[in-house]
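Hey,
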Amino acid sequence: MASPSAIEPPRVRGRLVRDALIRYSGGVAIAALAIGVRLAFTPLTDKINFTFYYFAVAASVWLFDAGPGLLTLAICYFAALLVLNPHGLDLSNPGDQAAVALAIAVNLGIIVIVSRLKTGQLRLRRAFEEMEALRENALLAKVEADRARETAERANQAKSEFLDVISHELRNPLNAILLSSAALRQPGQDDRIPRRLAGIDRAASAMAKMVGRLLDSTRIESGKLEIDKEPFDLVPVMRSAVEISRPVAEAKRISLSVDIRPASAIVNGDADRIQESVANLVGNAIKFTPEEGRVEVALGARDGRLELRIADSGAGIDPEFLPHVFERFAQDGSMPSADRGLGLGLFIVRHVVELHGGTIRASSEGKGRGSCFTMNLPESSSR
């Protein structure tokens, strides 16, 4: 089996060799400095002996590790005994041998002690770093927990508001159905039967619409909402969606203008779903626009994509609510409760548009300054 160094990448091996050269060069430099200092002090006194070498070895171990420390020790004593020998040591003399051996033993002890101290310092530093990392992770975990708690609280609040809204929304058509059916059972109602039946039909249609949106929302959450894709012309679909809301606009004396540039706009998708989405956007624009306001619907083409814009001069969207306008059960808390819906319409619209390969975005300059919804759909090459 190849040794670990043999399988290391050349770049890693080169870095290791370079680091080793730097460390051992540092040991040589410290040894040279110690020898130079010892020579400088020799004319003053010859009593110091090997004191400078102790400091040199300790410094080399602390700065560069035990290996460079041993190299510093070897250089210092080689120079002291064989080259400089300022004290005239005689290595054949047992006393001098003992002195040199003791000095070397002391230096080896220094190497061991300093190495242990350095290892302890590194472990202590690593422990502090791990403690700091744990503290940061704990802070991050706390932030994530706080964020999750806030999300859960918002979800619970949204659920509660949704249940309140749907209870209110369902109560109105149910009351209309009950009152109309009760009136039909009264004698002498023959001339009022068509009007009562029309009221029942409207109430039942409203309930069916709400139930349909709830089912669509559930399908979206489970990833089971599907659309039938086939080429259709967006222009008549869009005109039909606008005309559905025109009576409401006329009743509020709202100017509803339509500007369609292309003669035809072929889209590959589900015409009914797109018509419902456009009607939802136009209906919302009219709903949140005061009397004698204006709603503008425009369709254009750009870079192979169709762009549908629905702008109004109505209530606008709160900047804090704007990023959440397409979320499930999202409701603008600054709106009167009577103007709030189920919070599902725009959520469904966004997913329908995305299933068609398109995008939708909302923009508003703030409360009371109107809003604009822009839908982009890919134009089909089929004609």
